[in-house]
From TrEMBL:
Protein name, as recorded: Conserved membrane protein YqhR
Keywords: Membrane, Transmembrane, Transmembrane helix
Transmembrane parts of this sequence: 21-43, 69-89, 96-113, 133-154
InterPro entries linked to this entry: YqhR
Organism expressing this protein natively: Gracilibacillus orientalis
Length: 162
């Protein structure tokens, strides 16, 4: 009986992985698109192409709409990793607070720790207040979307199995 229960728990964990992957893809797609739109309307000077392409490619096409679309797709794929990491570490914590904290930590990692990698992004102290506020809010919204969706799916799945 115990061995059967162990297999059932493994199967339950595996069945949430595809949902977590889709949450990561759609979270990256939605919020990177919102960031691109925010950049288009000059709420921020930092857009997805600023991180993904423009820091390494200084070509004409990477600064246009094609560069933004490719960057949004790459961010959607990278978002799978964050969603899986969130699933492993924080899935049992319901509510939006873990997502808010994750968004703030993620913003600090990108804008402080990885600042030397992203040569196209100005240092934090050179960013205008609109860019800082907009990007912090976007990172928080993105992380809350990922975190709340994953913890909700986990709690719902756990409730179905009990």
């Amino acid at each position: 009986m115990r061995r059967v229960n162990h297999r059932k728990n493994q199967h339950d964990e595996i069945s949430l992985i595809p949902k977590t992957i889709s949450i990561g893809i759609f979270g990256g797609l939605i919020w990177a698109t919102v960031a691109a739109v925010a950049g288009y309307f000059s709420f921020t000077k930092v857009t997805p192409k600023s991180f993904v392409l423009r820091s390494w490619l200084q070509t004409k096409w990477s600064d246009q709409w094609l560069g933004e679309v490719i960057s949004i797709c790459i961010i959607s794929l990278l978002s799978i990793g964050l969603a899986l990491l969130y699933y492993v570490v924080l899935k049992k914590f319901p509510g939006i607070l873990p997502g808010i904290m994750t968004g703030i930590v993620l913003w600090f990692i990108i804008f402080w720790l990885f600042e030397p990698i992203f040569t196209n992004i100005p240092p934090f102290y050179e960013l205008d207040s609109d860019t800082v506020v907009t990007t912090v809010c976007l990172f928080i919204l993105y992380s809350v979307f990922i975190g709340y969706s994953i913890s909700f799916a986990y709690q719902q799945h756990r409730g179905e199995n009990n």
